[in-house]
């Protein structure tokens, strides 16, 4: 077991090193610049090497059940340094952020959007308990922590939130790096877009804010501090919104929609 764990640590360091060597890539499509973060390359490489057809020999030991269980259990601890980084970005612009602080609170209304819109769609396409994990939020750190503690990541709910976490890491940052410049081009203020970058995902926030910085390099400090403050607020207040608003609402909607679906099948 110790040998398998050592191989996993070496593999992680290797993958991270390769991803950092690739670095942040900017792909220009017309007037839009897509930002691809090293995190995306790290996740993509890890997923490729984890395919059953390649999972042989040393890789089979790296992706052993013990290592997978360990990674799932302690995944949340690697998020803690991010919280410290957000605080460091916010502090220099704290007075300016507090002057418009009430605006940040409006974004919390969007935390229930995944339940109101995503849950009915998930059930419609055939998801069962996986829909609970997949639609509680954007499937980021807060939702991952809640679902893993309540249901464990080996449950259907855990598979739902983990799948969304990986999809968000791969495609979410690319989507946000495109979406932010597009909104900027139609007249949105860069500060408003910087505020909206903090959706609870470090990779999505970095992609969106980096795209804005590429367009307004002279406003880099303002953009990054607003984005970090928004991210910090989402991570903090969003947790309470999730527990006291999103979870009860989702439970009610899930019971109502699944009961209605079952009644419909019986009628047929």
From TrEMBL:
The chain crosses the membrane at residues 7-27, 33-54, 66-84, 104-127, 164-186, 192-216, 223-247. Keywords: Membrane, Transmembrane, Transmembrane helix. It comes from the Bacteria. This is DUF3100 domain-containing protein.
């Amino acid at each position: 077991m110790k040998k398998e764990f050592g191989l996993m640590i070496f593999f992680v360091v290797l993958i991270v090193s390769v991803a950092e060597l690739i670095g942040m890539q900017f792909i220009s499509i017309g007037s839009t610049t897509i930002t691809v973060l090293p995190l995306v390359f790290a996740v993509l490489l890890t997923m490729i090497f984890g395919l059953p057809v390649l999972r042989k020999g040393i890789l089979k030991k790296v992706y052993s059940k013990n290592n997978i269980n360990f990674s799932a259990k302690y995944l949340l601890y690697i998020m803690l340094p991010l919280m410290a980084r957000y605080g460091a970005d916010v502090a220099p612009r704290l007075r300016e952020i507090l002057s418009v602080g009430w605006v940040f609170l409006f974004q919390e209304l969007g935390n229930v959007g995944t339940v109101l819109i995503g849950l009915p769609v998930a059930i419609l396409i055939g998801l069962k308990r996986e829909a609970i994990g997949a639609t509680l939020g954007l499937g980021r750190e807060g939702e991952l922590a809640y679902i893993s503690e309540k249901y464990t990541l080996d449950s259907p709910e855990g598979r739902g939130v983990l799948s969304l976490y990986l999809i968000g890491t791969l495609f979410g940052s690319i989507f946000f790096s495109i979406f932010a410049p597009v909104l900027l081009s139609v007249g949105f203020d860069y500060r408003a877009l910087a505020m909206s970058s903090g959706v609870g995902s470090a990779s999505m926030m970095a992609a969106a804010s980096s795209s804005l910085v590429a367009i307004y390099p002279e406003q880099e400090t303002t953009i990054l501090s607003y984005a970090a403050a928004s991210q910090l607020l989402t991570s903090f207040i969003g947790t309470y919104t999730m527990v006291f608003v999103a979870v009860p609402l989702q439970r009610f909607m899930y019971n109502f929609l699944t009961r209605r679906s079952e009644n419909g099948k019986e009628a047929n």
